[in-house]
Specification:
This protein has 193 residues and is an alpha/beta fold. The protein has helices at residues 4-11, 17-27, 86-99, 155-160, 169-176, and strands spanning 40-41, 59-63, 72-79, 112-119, 131-137, 143-154, 187-188, 191-192. α2 (17-27) packs antiparallel against α5 (169-176).
Length: 193
């Protein structure tokens, strides 16, 4: 899917909420009670929307986990072209969403934030992994804060090396929903249709 509006039309509609939920859980590698189970779409698709002028994430979901548990906010973003501004844009998304969680003067009780970015290029060309989890940690790799995560999914790498990910739950999504997923779009001359 090489258009943000098309991506949003498919994944930000109530009729496809099961597909969106499965895609999020596969992207975040969530299983069992950790899964996102009943998300609500905050910014559903609006007919006529092109999706190319917004500085906000393409899709925003919220998921309530019950009393005493932080609510999940899941931001889904699609990036087709690599450029030097894109990493800063992802960090800006995290900052904006985080600052909107707390009202001025209130204690900083943050919700669980997952920013999922589907990138149609290689963000980490030296890595064999297609899924990259980015969190705040120190120089020794010790996690400092676990409620904010950026998960970068390199779609091109996934498609080109899908056989290497046999058994991966993301591959299961692509096989279960071949008519809808971003991963079912074939490569043509190195670009996505």
């Amino acid at each position: 899917i090489y258009n943000d509006g098309v991506f949003k039309k498919i994944f930000a509609s109530e009729e496809n909420i099961a597909l969106t939920t499965d895609l999020v859980n596969a992207s975040l590698d969530l299983f069992g009670c950790d899964c996102i189970s009943h998300p609500r779409i905050v910014n559903p698709f609006v007919p006529g929307e092109t999706g190319n002028s917004s500085v906000e994430p393409d899709i925003m979901l919220v998921n309530d986990r019950g009393v005493g548990q932080p609510r999940d906010r899941i931001s889904i973003d699609v990036q087709h072209n690599n450029n030097t501004l894109y990493p800063a844009r992802l960090v800006l998304y995290v900052s904006r969403i985080t600052s909107n969680m707390v009202k001025r003067g209130a204690p900083p009780l943050l919700e669980n934030l997952n920013v999922v970015s589907f990138q149609f290029f290689e963000a980490f060309p030296k890595s064999k992994n297609y899924r990259h989890v980015v969190q705040l940690s120190n120089q020794e790799g010790m996690l400092y804060f676990d409620l904010q995560t950026m998960t970068i999914v390199e779609v091109k790498k996934f498609l080109e090396h899908a056989d290497a990910y046999a058994g991966d739950n993301m591959l299961g999504i692509a096989e279960y929903y071949p008519e809808h997923t971003a991963f079912s779009t074939p490569l043509t001359n190195g670009t996505y249709n």
